[in-house]
Amino acid sequence: MIGSARGFLIDKDSSGEIVLEVAGIGYCITVNVGTLVDLPELGEEAFLHVHHHMREDTQQLYGFLTVEEKKCFESVIAAHGVGPALGMAVLATLPPSDLRQAVASEDVESLCLVPGVGKKTAQRMILDLKNRLEGSDGEMTVSASTAATASPVADVREALSQMGFGVEEIRHAVTDLQGSDLSSMLREALRRMAKK
Question: Could you report the per-residue pLDDT of 158-177, keeping only the tens digit for each?
Answer without folding.
Answer: 777 767 777 777 878 888 78
